[in-house]
Design brief:
Strand content: under 5%
Largest sheet: 2 strands, parallel
Order of helices and strands: HHHHHHHHEHEH
Number of strands: 2
Radius of gyration: 17 Å
Strand order of the largest sheet: 1-2
Structural class: mainly alpha
Length: about 220
């Protein structure tokens, strides 16, 4: 399935029908599509107007804002939702959503107003959360801890090159965000991924195809 066909399939599914685990891939797919259309406005004939894409991002942000305030959500899942919500601000500039995300982020990494930042997990989502906190607050400790997480992951490969496939796409996304915000250079190589049309996996496939269209295929 090519990106155009997949986009049409994804776009007719109400946001509320996607499971929470699919929202991250869905969000990043739409952010990539939004960037593609913004640079190439004639592609609105293919992907719809920038406004329509923007509205889908807004809907996803609303779902994420609800999820991160739900105490029943597992910590690692909340970390991912918070990181995603902060990243929506770069496209959908809603200060209310950003404030919700930052409050939730610091509630996790600086519990009870502590001056010390702690890491309850060292997941790729935590890396993205720290990078966004650094971006929005300028707190150097967040950048340092994000670098620690990335360095630990790189040590697993004993190299500065990571071959990314569908199994570690989250690390690809996290290291990409880290390089973009903190500024370190790491070479990432993307393999073609296996297509899976189940709704829980559809969003990740959408994310990956849209990313390739935006950053790789049009270079």
């Amino acid at each position: 399935m090519n990106l155009n066909d997949l986009y049409k399939k994804v776009s007719v599914i109400p946001i509320g029908d996607f499971p929470p685990s699919a929202l991250s891939g869905l969000l990043h797919g739409y952010i990539s599509i939004y960037s593609i259309v913004r640079v190439n406005p004639w592609l609105e004939d293919v992907y719809g107007s920038q406004w329509d894409i923007h509205e889908r991002i807004r809907e996803i942000a609303g779902e994420l804002a609800d999820l991160i305030q739900d105490p029943s959500i597992a910590l690692e899942d909340r970390v991912g939702h918070i990181a995603d919500l902060m990243e929506t601000y770069l496209t959908y500039s809603d200060m209310d959503f950003l404030d919700i995300a930052l409050d939730a982020a610091y509630g996790i990494i600086s519990p009870e107003g502590s001056d010390e930042i702690v890491l309850p997990c060292r997941t790729p989502e935590m890396c993205r959360l720290l990078c966004s906190c650094y971006y929005f607050t300028g707190e150097e400790e967040c950048a340092r801890l994000a670098k620690e997480i990335v360095k630990d992951k790189m040590n697993e490969y004993n190299s500065n090159q990571i071959l990314i496939n569908i199994d570690n796409w989250n690390w690809f996304r996290a290291i990409e965000v880290y390089c973009s915000i903190v500024g370190d250079k790491i070479n990432l190589f993307l393999k073609d991924n296996i297509e899976n049309e189940e709704i829980g996996c559809l969003s990740d496939y959408f994310d990956q195809l849209a990313y390739k269209e935006l950053f790789l295929d049009n270079k």
